[in-house]
Amino acid sequence: MNNTRRQRLKEANKKLAEIIDVVEDVKDEEEDALDNMPENLQNSDRYEEIENNVDALGDIYDELQDLHNRLSDLAV
After folding, report:
1. What are the Cα distances from residue 45, in Å, to 32, 33, 63?
2. How many C-beta neighbours within 10 Å does residue 25 have?
3. Degrees to nearest 5, angle at CA 12 with 11 and 13
4. How many structural domains is the chain composed of?
5. Beta-carbon contacts of residue 1 (< 8 Å; ≥ 6 apart)
6. Domain containing 28: what range?
7. What is this structure's pTM?
8. N or C: which end of the chain has fewer CB within 10 A?
């Protein structure tokens, strides 16, 4: 791979790292919302929705992190 393409991949990976940070922040905020939900709402549809969001965001975070690592390997 030439230096121009390698540099483009490094730039893309930097942007991906920023996206990963946003996804992690939103996941953390959803987890906080879940943790702070009153006991009487813990069996509600809203609680289940937030719980599903946390799980999905965790999966997305893991997949993005894997992609970030793979791009890092290519851009060396």
Report:
1. 17, 14, 27
2. 11
3. 90
4. 1
5. 9, 74
6. 3-74
7. 0.89
8. C
